[in-house]
From TrEMBL:
E.C. number: 3.6.1.45
Subunit structure: Homodimer.
Function text: Hydrolyzes UDP-glucose to glucose 1-phosphate and UMP and ADP-ribose to ribose 5-phosphate and AMP. The physiological substrate is probably UDP-glucose. Poor activity on other substrates such as ADP-glucose, CDP-glucose, GDP-glucose and GDP-mannose.
GO CC list: cytoplasm
Recorded catalytic activity of this chain's protein: UDP-sugar + H2O = UMP + alpha-D-aldose 1-phosphate
Protein family per UniProt: Belongs to the Nudix hydrolase family.
Keywords (A to Z) from UniProt: Cytoplasm, Hydrolase, Magnesium
Cofactors required: Mg(2+)
Predominant place of localization: cytoplasm
Any one GO MF annotation of this record: UDP-sugar diphosphatase activity
Designated name of the protein: Uridine diphosphate glucose pyrophosphatase NUDT14
Location relative to the cell: Cytoplasm
């Protein structure tokens, strides 16, 4: 969706005409990176019998490469996203990870269309990152950084 919005912004005539042939022959094609966004680790709740925390364990391992036990997840809140389109309900969790918990590279499952690069943001740069409008990100990213700054960062040892 982000990519298609960028195509429409750069080439409004293509989507107005709904001409598939002209779309595939853009003189100035939109690079794929235009559809890449910063997002939180996430997954679909589609495993009956598993708690949200257990599903989150699998997603963190698959997407980020960390093995986190379900009881390490702290539920922050649930909220609606995509309210004009899907109205999906999301639940935000917090879990701390260490290098010792890393068991792989993460990256998701390419066969499912996932293209994931794990990005670490230094704590001192986190709010600059959150408010940088040139970096495409979800509202969940911004909210989670604000929550962290208000609830976890003040308790961290000062350098």
């Amino acid at each position: 969706a982000v990519y298609m919005c960028e195509v429409e912004r750069r080439h409004p005539q293509v989507l107005q005409n709904q001409d598939k042939e002209s779309f595939s022959r853009l003189e100035d094609p939109v690079p794929a990176v235009a559809g890449v966004t910063y997002e939180l680790c996430a997954g679909i709740v589609d495993k009956p019998g598993l708690s949200l925390e257990e599903i989150a364990c699998g997603e963190v391992l698959e997407e980020c490469g960390y093995r986190v036990l379900f009881f390490f997840f702290r539920r922050i809140t649930s909220y609606r996203s995509g309210v004009g389109v899907t109205g999906s309900r999301q639940t935000l969790f917090y879990a701390e990870v260490t290098d010792q918990m890393r068991t792989g590279e993460g990256g998701g499952q390419p066969e499912e269309g996932e293209l994931i690069e794990v990005v670490e943001i230094p704590l001192e740069d986190s709010m600059k990152f959150a408010y940088d409008e040139t970096l495409p990100k979800t509202m969940g990213v911004i909210f989670s950084f604000m929550w962290f700054q208000n609830n976890i960062a003040p308790k961290l040892p000062k350098k």
